Amino acid sequence: MAAFQAALLERSHERVPLDWATTQSNLGNVLAALGEREGNTIRLEEAVAAYRNALLEYSRERVPLLDWAATQNNLGIVLHVLGERRSDRKMLEQALVCVSNARAVYVNEARQIHRAPQLDARIAAIEGSLRNLYATP
């Protein structure tokens, strides 16, 4: 994690925005893994911030669609975990949007049909989490 944070000093947003976004995405991956392993919501929140930072530059129009989709999917996964831990409908709804966006690119646009079952399972899990919350008074 320290290596990515050091890289962000060298790869500044102003100087090399796409390299900065790549570093943000990689940092998000590390933070997400640490947060899930440690059960640490602070690390997960930091992962969400890093993925959102990456998406400032990783727009559908600017980077290869699969890079954008991967970041959307990763953000959706972390939002799902956080949303479940906090019983936060808004986070779960955002997770559903992110993973659905990723699925649309992977399956419909890039024709990576082999990814559909995993993405569909994630979408179903998020929808289940939302149903559970809406059923709770």
Any overview of this molecule?
The chain has 137 residues and is mostly helical. The chain is built from six helices and no strands. α2 packs parallel to α4, α4 (65-86) runs antiparallel to α5 and α5 (89-109) runs antiparallel to α6 (116-135). The longest helix is centred in the first third of the chain and has 22 residues, at 17-38.
**How many runs of DSSP E, i.e. beta strands?**
0
CA-atom Rg in angstroms = 15 Å
Question: Portion of residues in helices?
Answer: over 70%
Low-confidence stretches: none
Whole-Å distance between the termini? Answer: 40 Å
- What shape does the CA trace take? globular
Please, how many helices?
6
Helix/strand order: HHHHHH
Largest sheet: none
Question: What key attributes describe this structure?
Answer:
137 residues; mainly alpha
Give a topology summary.
Blueprint: H1 2-10, H2 17-38, H3 41-57, H4 65-86, H5 89-109, H6 116-135
Helix pairs in contact: 1-2, 2-3, 2-4, 3-4, 4-5, 5-6
What does this entry show, briefly?
The chain has 137 residues and is mainly α. Helix content is 81%, strand content 0%.
